[in-house]
Amino acid sequence: MMTAALLRILVVEDDKALLSILCDMLAGLGYHAVGVASAEEALVQLETGSFNVLLSDINLPGISGIDLASRAVAMVHGIRIIFSSGFGYLVTDRLEFSFQLLNKPYHLQELARAIRHSAHQLSGAEQ
Predict the structure, then answer these.
(1) What is the reported pLDDT for 127?
(2) 42-57 confidence digits (pLDDT tens)
(3) Are 67 and 43 in contact (CB under 8 A)?
């Protein structure tokens, strides 16, 4: 299984306070997280960085989290997608890629479980 230290997570959340909390939570779990406040910033990070997981809010200004995830899947081979949203179940049933959904508000244990699941999927893909 991919170790926490090797897992790189791109966090996209337009609520800057929540973005900071998420990055702190992920760091506390031993992961390397890079936080940005928009899908446009995330696309720049995806072009220049090496990420294994995209953790994105669905409802973002400009490019939506869903459109961002679609682009990320096309750009980064094997990237795992985790959406966080209060209403994601309304829009995620028609996607053509696999993802996990964290319904807001969620707890640290739920976030940790989603990240561990992504790491497990990545380890399976590497074999």
Answers:
(1) 43
(2) 999 999 889 999 999 9
(3) no
Are 55 and 22 in contact by the 8 Å Cβ rule? The answer is: yes
What separation in angstroms does the CA of 102 have from each of 38, 54, 74, 85, 113?
19, 13, 22, 7, 10
For residues 27 and 33, is the Cβ–Cβ distance under 8 A?
Answer: yes
Backbone angles phi, psi at 69, to 5 degrees: -60, -40
Whole-number Cα distances in Å, 28 to 8, 33, 39, 73, 81: 14, 10, 24, 27, 20
pLDDT of 23: 96
pLDDT tens digits along 2-28 = 666 689 999 999 999 999 999 999 999
The total of other beta-carbon atoms located within 10 Å of residue 27's CB is 12
**Exposed e or buried b for every residue in 80-93, given b needs 16+ CB within 10 A?**
bbbbbbeebeeebe
